[in-house]
Amino acid sequence: MVRTRFAPSPTGFVHIGSLRTALFSFLFARHHGGQHVLRVEDTDQNRLVEGALENLVHVMNQMGIEFDEGFYVTDDGSIKERGGHGPYLQSKRLEIYQKYAKQLMDEGKAYYCFCSEERLEELRKEQTALKKPPMYDRHCKKLSADEIKSKIEEFSAKGGSASGGKSAGKRPVIRFAIPNEGQTVIHDLIYGDITYENKVLDDQVIIKSDGFPTYHLAVVVDDHLMEITHVIRGEEWLPSTPKHILIYQALGWQPTQFAHLPLILNPDKSKLSKRQGDVAVEDFLKKGYLKEALINFVAFLGWNPKTEQEIFSLNDLIAQFDLAKINKSGAVFDLNKLDWINGQYIKLKTDAALAELLKPYWQEYGTKTEKFSGAFLTAIAALEKERLKKLSEIGERTAYFFKAPDYAPELLVWKKSDKEKTKSVLSDLLELFKNLPEADYAKEKLELAIKKFIVDKNYDNGSVLWPFRVAITGLEKSPGPFEAAAVLALGLGKTEILQRIETAIKKLS
Ligand code: GLU
User: Cα(9) to centroid of ligand 1, in Å?
Assistant: First the structure.
């Protein structure tokens, strides 16, 4: 049975890259009828952010990424844990890591390290000056049993604490002893075989002085005990993988399979980072990207179905997902593509469903949607549907429907007309509208009436339709005059149209 896991650290918002990792591990598990586990890696206590775990679980839930084990959102919105391999929060598993660290110590595969931060810093400086990669020099590996004993006694006598401090000694860390020779090969499902010389690998700390494991020990122990078969994670973890494989071997375990996902890049090929704009899933949702569109977009960050199909539902993705179709080269994060995909998903919504989705965005813009009829909101949604790229654009784009627009008088004058002519056209139009029954304000009838008016009065289209549209919308670019006026009349009645034309005439006087 395939078992994959998503193993985030709860350090704040959910990065779009984390969403991709979670999605791919979910797709892979489901494609193979397997299970998906959510494990939270909180061993770096300095980087924890209050509420990050809850936020993460909610975002995953919102995006439709399911977990069979680990944390989940209950019907009442609270977060609970389930599954037979828990606890799923690493800080609740400290004894487990201690046990395996002890086993490695007992077998001579790990050792205490008493080196101070100062010594390690000195060492790093020396190595950097010599243009060597900074690495621990295995100083403490050479300590005799007696030396170790006396250092431990010294630590206890000083009433040593985890953090050290001036008087107290610092509790030693435990380092994993990497074999001095030989090679370690990663059989990566995406990158193929990668061979590392063991001698270039650092003797990684596996238990810190606060008694917590480092990521390297915890990830191996948990992936093994949680019976994970495939680790799918970002390429930035590739250099850690040989160390993980060596820890698996030292513990006498079979390593999982590994699949590392290509980096996500900005269009300028730099690594996607917060500095270049939004990278938090929460921000994208807030801006009005639909979750289906985000999932569809993120699926293409590195994966390519190798067909023409561009729109994929989550179920389509599950059916077609294949690690063999993941590229090795970086995946460019192209916001234009996201906008395009989002536009496609917006078009797929019914008008009423879209209006419902738009309500919070109207509210945020200050439009009190409860004051207007559902039919009016739906008609506006229908009008904007083809053009809308993000839901958050709606407030500004449609403000004129809810409140008479303010605009410069010059905007009313069509390029081939002038102020006086515009004024008289608008006065004639006002007469026409006054005599037009409310029922004739539906788009087609309105269009017929105005077109007839243009012919009867011997006007040209532009000198009528331009000022009419501006009087209604106050915008240089907007939906067409008949559509906009019909929707406005539907929502606010004929009088609103008359008023807007009167305002336009006044502006020109
Ligand atoms: N906790 C690591 C992270 O935050 C997980 C890396 C892994 O999947 O092994 O990305």
Answer: 7
Ligand 1 atom with least separation from CA of 240: 9
- pLDDT at residue 11 in the model: 86
Quick check: is 274 catalytic?
yes
Calpha distance 318→65 (Å, rounded): 11
Q: Does residue 233's CB lie within 6 angstroms of at least one atom of ligand 1?
A: yes
**In the CATH hierarchy, which top-level class contains the domain 349-401?**
mainly alpha
Architecture of the domain whose range is 1-80+262-348: 3-Layer(aba) Sandwich (3.40)
The CA distances from residue 289 to 57, 295, 308, 391, 397, in Å, are 19, 10, 23, 7, 16
Nearest ligand 1 atom, CA 6: 8
> Is there a contact between 137 and 145 (Cβ–Cβ < 8 Å)?
no
Catalytic, out of 274, 306, 328, 403: 274
CA–CA distance, 243 with 251 (Å, rounded to integer)? 12
| Cα–Cα distance for residue pair 249/243, rounded to 1 Å | 10
Q: Is the CB of 8 under 6 A from ligand 1?
A: yes
Report mean pLDDT in 10-residue bins for the chain, 509 residues: 97 93 98 98 89 95 97 95 97 97 97 94 95 94 93 76 49 95 97 96 95 96 98 96 98 98 89 73 94 97 94 96 94 94 98 98 96 97 96 96 97 95 96 92 94 95 97 96 96 96 96
Domain range summary for the chain, segments of one domain joined by +: 1-80+262-348, 93-218, 349-401, 409-508
CATH code of domain 93-218: 3.90.800.10
Q: How many residues does the chain have?
A: 509
For domain 409-508, the CATH architecture is: Orthogonal Bundle (1.10)
Residue type for position 495:
T
